[in-house]
Amino acid sequence: MKAVVATGYGPPEEYRVADVPVPQPGPGQIRVRIAAASINPADVRLPSGDFREVVPLTFPHVPGNDFAGTVSEVGDGVTVYRVGDEIFGQAVPRALRTMAGTKRPSLSTGSLAEYAVFEADTPFLTHRPPGLDVEQAAALPTIGLTARALMATAQVRPGETVLVVGATGGVGTALIPLLAGAGARVTATATAADADVLRALGADGTIGYAETEYPEGVDVAFNLTLPSDRLTAVANAVRPGGRLLTITYPVPRQEWIGRDDVGLHFVLDMDGTFGGMREVAELAVRGGPPATIGRRYTLDDGVQACVDFVRLHTTGKLVVTM
Hints:
- The protein is α/β, with parallel strands linked by helices.
- Helix content is about 25%, strand content about 25%.
- Strands 3, 4, 5, 8, 9, 16 and 17 form a seven-stranded mixed beta sheet that branches. Strands 12-11-10-13-14-15 form a six-stranded parallel beta sheet. Strands 1-2 form a two-stranded antiparallel sheet.
- The longest helix is centred in the middle third of the chain and has 21 residues, at about 135-155.
């Protein structure tokens, strides 16, 4: 089968599309013919070598967490899925096993490929509902899970003021409609070219990326892009008693933000505490905010998708179809 492959640590320009063996499912696993996948930060950060001391990879490594596809084979003991089922979800590389949750971890062989093997018994896979098309299903998993977890943690109330830093990415474009629906007044960082997109999603206003443009005294700030050891300016935008939520590594410490009067929350739900892919699917069927797809690629251009994710300013998700 064809797959995007990293053959060693390095930048995405060194990946290639190569023929690799089709993975075989073992007990409790399913094999899926991938129809579409989308790019996430971990897909390029792990092969970069940034975390090699903590999470060493085995090469060749196939990246890809989010996917939509069709079950093509089931392993012994699998009862929840059958051959032909249309499913979608999120699964991390097996190298992340120790960090992938303690209950029913969602692991795979990498979704930027024609086929991938997944654990069947996990809340992070589910059947794709008829009203959710393949590209949307491939784009939704990580951003849907993350946006839901952020909203559940922040408990935003009507009328509260919110700053979203990194609003034009996949998570930001999924989060802003939820904040608007909760009655928040949202200020989002964006380029001038993205301002109309974010306003259409529900942002009340946009600002540039310079820290000097951050508003003062907001009730809640969401950091979706800056390293979590560089959040002093974001914290300074929050009123005393307000909340700062971040999804980026390193795991933040209160002393790093220079404020003890701001609630600091690192949001990473690896066990599905705030709901899994079934809940993401239900929200989508009820008319929840769709994923914003900024660029589309074929598998033959999968390396370019990874390069663009790192090198270009992108809006929403980058989707690769097989």
